[in-house]
Amino acid sequence: MEIAARRTEEYWFVVGALPLQEDTRYKKLWNLSYDILDSVKTAIIIIFLLFTFLFRIVGVEGPSMEPTLHDNDWLVLSAGREKPKLGDIVVVVQPSFKQEPLIKRVIGVGGDVVDIDAEKQTVTVNGRVVNEPYIMEPIAKSHLYGQSYPKTVPEGYLFVMGDNRNNSSDSRHPRVGMVDERYVLGKALLRLFPSYTKLS
Asked: How many angstroms separate the first and last alpha carbons of the chain?
C-alpha cells in the first residue's frame, strides 16, 4: 500500500507539472510583450519631449529661399532661445504681414546698420560687404519697395531676407519690416527631406 501511494503521488505530480510549464511559457511571452510595449511607450514620450522643447519639424512653402531651400523641403529647427546671428536661417512669424510662418536668412541683428545698394548689387552690414554665395541673384532696384538705406536695426529685432531676393517678402517689404526676436520660432539646423543637409 505504501508503494502504491508513492506512485500515485508521483503520477499526479508529473501530470500536474505540464500545465505549470505552459503557464510559465505564456507568462514569459506576456512579460516580453509588456517590456517591448513599455520601451516603445518610453521612446515615444522621449521623442515627444525632444520635439516639443528642443526641436521642431517644419515644411518649406514657396520659392523665397531658393536655391538653398525649395518648396516641400522638410527642416529640423532648434526650438531653443539662442540669439540669432548673421547668416542663420530662421523661421519667424510676423503678425503685421500674415499668420503663416516665414523662413528667411538673418542679415542684421539689433544695432547693425544694413545698407542695400541695388546699383552695386551689394548688401553691407556695419560697413562690410556681405559675401552671399547662397543667393539666387542680386537684388533688383524694384525690390527695395521704395525704401531708403542704410537702416539701423533696433535692439531686439532682426533684418531678414530670402535667398531668392527678387521673389521674397521680407524686411525690405513695408508690411513685413524688421522682425521682433520674440517672434522667432527656431533656427534651421538641417534639411531632412528630400536630402539630408546641414544648414548651420
From this structure: 89
User: Three-state SS across 12-63?
Assistant: HHHHHHHHHHHHHHHHHHHHHHHHHHHHHHHHHHHHHHHHHHCEEEEECCCC
- Give pTM, 2 decimals: 0.72
CA atoms of 109 and 104, how far apart (whole Å): 13
Residue 84, C-alpha cell as written in the block: 540669432
| Residues labelled as active-site residues | 64, 104
Q: What is the DSSP letter of 7?
A: H
Burial of 41-58, coded b for 16+ CB within 10 Å and e otherwise, reads: eeeeeeeeeeeeeeebeb
Three-state secondary-structure class, residue 109: strand
Cα 154 to Cα 141: distance, rounded to the nearest angstrom: 24
How many helices (H) and strands (E) the chain has is answered by 1, 12
22-71 residue pLDDT tens: 567 777 778 777 778 777 766 666 655 555 556 678 888 899 999 999 99
Res 53: pLDDT: 54
Residue type, 179: V
DSSP state of 144: G
88 burial level (CB within 10 Å; 0-12, 13-18, 19+): buried
